From TrEMBL:
The lineage of its organism: Bacteria, Pseudomonadati, Pseudomonadota, Betaproteobacteria, Burkholderiales. This is Trehalose-6-phosphate synthase. It catalyses: D-glucose 6-phosphate + UDP-alpha-D-glucose = alpha,alpha-trehalose 6-phosphate + UDP + H(+). Homotetramer. Signal peptide: none annotated. It comes from Ramlibacter agri. Its EC number is 2.4.1.15. Pfam families: Glyco_transf_20. Probably involved in the osmoprotection via the biosynthesis of trehalose. Catalyzes the transfer of glucose from UDP-alpha-D-glucose (UDP-Glc) to D-glucose 6-phosphate (Glc-6-P) to form trehalose-6-phosphate. Acts with retention of the anomeric configuration of the UDP-sugar donor. Pathway: Glycan biosynthesis; trehalose biosynthesis.
Amino acid sequence: MSRLVVVSNRIADPRKTAAGGLAVALAEVLNGTGGLWFGWSGKIVDATEGDDVHFMQAGPVKLATVDLSQVDHDDFYLGYSNGVLWPVFHYRLDLADFDAGYIAGYRRVNQLFARKLMPLLQPDDVIWVHDYHLIPLAAELRALGCQQRIGFFLHIPLPPPLIVAAIPGHDWLIRALFAYDLVGFQSQADLAHFAGYVESEAHAQPLGDGRWRAFGRTVHAGAFPIGIDVEEFTQLTQAPEAMEMYERMKREYSRRRLLVGVDRLDYSKGLPQRMRAFREFLQKNPDLRSSATLIQIASPSREDVEAYSDLLHELESLCGSINGNFGELDWMPVRYIHRTVARARLPGLFRASQVALVTPLRDGMNLVAKEYLTAQDEEDPGVLVLSRFAGAAEQLREALLVNPYDTEGTAAAILLALQMPLEERRLRHQAMMKTIRQYDVHWWCDSFLNALQEAQAEEKGTSWL
Ligand code: GDG
């Protein structure tokens, strides 16, 4: 069996359960092959300190990391990755900062990764690169003579061709995808956008069977919706810490209905829109007013990017005004927590909540939706209100699907969710759990890696850069 080499911007120690489903699933495959995980150490160092690779053994998995200089971190991570690609790929051209200097940093770090990874590779390695930070990595590796099979998975959405085309240098970026043997997306919609782009902008020829040919090379592309580790999350739900959280919530909210939202504080997650919909629900349903509480956990994220501090203020002001206008002496409609909650407690909170509001404006997949459903009591499950613009909506058709921009429609769905009869809740939950179990994180890993094994590696000689 070939050794697996995983490359991602950040790496997680796969032995720590706090790392979550993705790290655990990757660790399982890496353990099987005695694999290598390569990425950024998370450390920023003085440019004069050199760029050594640090190694750490985590069970059978070898972790290899490099540090970044301040300027590389600013241009590559804050600048191009999170100031250009993240907003544009989430359809937010208005938030993109197309500073011409960022792209040089993005290339520099991808070159650094390629240069440092290349000597660690073995001839029959299979390389799996993750996410938007590292789109040109395969092209950089090929330029150094890398012949191995390389796959890429995009965790975030790919927008329609004309939105991608707004990025200065977009043709370079998409051309770089052709240096991979397989490119994976979260949804059929994202895959269709890829096809649309490469056919209209790069004049690629569709060869059928999910293959496209352009720039003298053939790339395979497919949709591989990511799942969760259902078994691990079920165990987490039954563990003492989650049970304790569940009991506490049940006690505290014995006379009230609980709604829950758990998201990174990110503008893609539609948090202000969600608050406005909840406010609309409170306004329209005075009789239900003091019986429903929304707990919103917004874990801090990328606070050094400007758009995120604007969002923080908007959200704080909305929560404050909702509580100010609708709160009673003994009840506040919104409990807003701007902190990270321990992973072990999340399933308890999910299980105690009758409704989950997962209403991103755009999301590659959204794992919270799948975690919420997995944590439910199947005899008396809660209801998922899900944005039609989350990748998860392609799979979870039995959720209450909403348009998060439609305040009134989302408010109506909240009411429907709170009033849904038990039998209907069970049927919907059962149907969605079937999908979540079938397409879990192991399915995701296996199906991607099988497709990568089958993808015919060819035309290694092409010049990429
Ligand atoms: C990207 C894509 C895609 C959240 N708050 C806390 C916390 N979380 C955990 C959740 C979940 C994970 O973080 C978030 O995953 P999502 O999928 O919802 O979103 P992104 O972070 O944006 O992830 C996304 C994903 O990649 C995988 O491909 O689904 O579309 O954007 O596991 O539970 N965990 C803890 N405390 C918190 O406060 N412990």
